Each structure stands twice: as structure tokens, then as C-alpha cells.
Amino acid sequence: MTRMSSTVAAAFLVVAVAWPLLASAQPAPSMPPPSPPAAATNNSRLEKAYVALQALKRAITDDPKKLTKNWCGPDVCNYFGVYCAPAPDDSCQRTVAGVDLNHGDLAGTLPEELGLLSDLAVFHLNSNRFSGSLPESLRSLHLLHEIDVSNNQLSGPFPSQLLCLPNVQYVDIRFNNFCGEVPAAIFEKKIDALFINNNHFEFTLPESFTNSTASVIVLANLPRLGGCLPSSIGDMAGTLNELILLNSGISSCIPPEIGKLDKLTVLDLSFNSIAGTLPDTIGNMRALEQLDVAHNQLAGEIPESICELPHLKNFTYSHNFFCGEPHRCLEVPHIDDSQNCIAGRPDQRPGEECISFLHRPKVHCDAQGCIAPPSPPPPPPPVYAHPPPVY
């Protein structure tokens, strides 16, 4: 997705060139000799940008769409995918404000010289074949607002450089090969959107998760994430619009405090190990449009308040162990209740599966929203070596 601001959508810098004398004859004695115009030069910002962009061009090993073909000469504002704008601290100087090479199928690496783009606000390189790690020098891009390097072949640990960017609002590093821990500090940053899904991260959902001010959080397809949905999830009510945690190794109950998320439009908790029941407080999430809790261990009855939500368009709760649903749920535009234990509904689990599930120990949730271990069985009665005496 291209999110380039209209303020950086066109190049305006004009580079003057020296004109040769068109005549070798001497001017008339009554006229002063004309002075040749001086060649215009880039300001220091554009000179640094030239160094950075030429380094990037050299680091690109395959450019099948010839996106960088015109990256020649000092006029960087005319380079394809490069957008210039007045510098924020000096409107008389032009500077590179955006680089957008999305969907270029470019192969190569990202050089350290990119840190010279000190006024960069938008950096979009999604859907290419860049490999290696993000350069450490990105931490100096203090004006960076959006970074999208998704759908590449980048690797290494979570790019901690992003934690140093005071103005970043949009972070998209999904569909890469990043691995290891995700620092809890990323959820403390005042960002608007966080996409880290489809990598190889291995971490536990931290307590700071609910401190996030993001409107969109996607932690999908991180099966080694793990952790629980904390009861403090309601603290995200002021900003959160979409939360996608599908296939993320979550082993949890759904805390009733989730009902405080009254701005949430999309909630996807599918393909996890979520147990217990669906809290009826979800019926307080009046903005909810998409709800997916499929492929979990949920049981009990579907609360009617959920199916009465005014904007609910898609409700998927298949592959659980629900035993009942109100008729109102069948009026939701798109539902999937298959592979449950709901009498009278088609495509349900075999009866023996449902009976076996009912004989499992009842699920209990602790104060942190995690599934509590079952209580130990009572101790057996004492066994005496000899019968007790009779008085």
C-alpha cells in the first residue's frame, strides 16, 4: 500500500546548468561583455541524499523493472520514487522527504548510507527482495514517520533502530525473516500501526502490550509468541481499532474486560489455545464488524448480546466446543458455526468428541488471564499397617 503524502508527491527542484557562449564574436564596443551564468548546485541536504541514493543503487543487484534507471546525476528530486519537499526547518531549502519503491521486485541490500537521508519522512520498500538486516544508521532518521519494508527477505533480530525514532507512527516489517525477542518497548512507543506478523519472532506477550496507543496491531502467524490476554486489555479502549492475533500461540482465557474496547472493529483470535467461554461483555463492543475465534478450545453458549451487535458482519466460531447458539446468531450476514457441538446444526463434531470434551476438567482463569492449572486431586485416605485399636 502506497501512503505517500501529497506534499512529497512531486519534484520541484530545478537544477540550473551553465550555458556555453553561442557566438565567438566579440560584443559591440558599446555593450558590456555578458557574464556566464553560474551553475546551480545542490544544497548540503541534497548532496547527502545523492550519496545515500547512489549507495542504494549500487547495493541493488537486480532491478528488473528498471526503477532506478534514471538515478543518474545530482538532481535527486527527479529520481523515480524519490520525493522532495521544503525542509521542515528551512522552507527555502529542498530536501528528500520520501522514498517509495514498493512492488519493485528489487534485489539487494540496504546500505548504511541511508542514514544520510536525515529529513526522510516516508520510507516504503515493500514487496521487493531485499535481504540482510536494516542498517543501524536508520536510528538517525529522526523525522521518519512511516517505514514499510514488508514482504522482503530481511533477517536478523528485531530492528531496535525503530525504538530510537521519535516520530515514527507506522511500522510495517511483516513477511520477512526477523527472529528472536520483540522488545517490550515497542508497545510503549506512541505509534499508530504495528505490523510484525509472519516473521520468526519468539517471545511472550509482555505486560506493556496493553500500554500501546496503536489503532492497528497485527501479531499474526507468530506461533512462538505465546502468553495470555491480560485483564488490562481494556486500557487500550481509547485508540485500538483492529487487533489480529491469529495463530500466535496464545494460551489464554478471554478476559471480560475485553468488552471495554468499544472502538474495536476487527478482533481475530483464531488458531490459538484459547479456552473457557466467550464473555457476554463482547456485546458492549458496539463498533465490532469482524469477530473470529475459530480453532480454539472455547465452550459453553454463544452470548446473544454478541449476535445483536449493530455492525457485526462476520462472526466465525467454528472448530470449538460450543454447545448452543441463539437463533439471533443465524441472522448475522456471515457466520461459521461448523465443527462445534451444537444440536440440530449441520457439520458438527462427532458426538463422542463432544462427550469426551465435557469430561475434561473445567477451565479456570487466573488474575492475569492465563489458564490456571487444574487443582490437584484430594490426597488419598491414610493406609494403616494394622487396623486401628477398638476401644
TrEMBL record:
Per its UniProt record, what InterPro entries does this chain match? Leu-rich_rpt, LRR_dom_sf, LRR_extensin-like_regulator, LRR_N_plant-typ
Which interval of the chain is the signal sequence?
Answer: 1-25
Name the SUPFAM superfamilies for this protein: L domain-like
Q: Name one GO biological process term.
A: cell wall organization
Where's it mainly located? Answer: secreted
User: Key word Repeat present in the record?
Assistant: yes
- Annotated localization: Secreted, Cell wall
Keyword terms: Cell wall, Cell wall biogenesis/degradation, Glycoprotein, Hydroxylation, Leucine-rich repeat, Repeat, Secreted, Signal
- Claim: Cell inner membrane is one of the keywords in the record: no
Q: Which segments constitute the Leucine-rich repeat-containing N-terminal plant-type domain?
A: 52-84
Which chain regions cross the lipid bilayer? none
PANTHER family tied to this protein: LEUCINE-RICH REPEAT EXTENSIN-LIKE PROTEIN 3-RELATED (PTHR32093), LEUCINE-RICH REPEAT EXTENSIN-LIKE PROTEIN 6 (PTHR32093:SF121)
Q: What is the name of the protein in this document? A: Cell wall hydroxyproline-rich glycoprotein
**What's the source species for this entry?**
Panicum virgatum (Blackwell switchgrass)
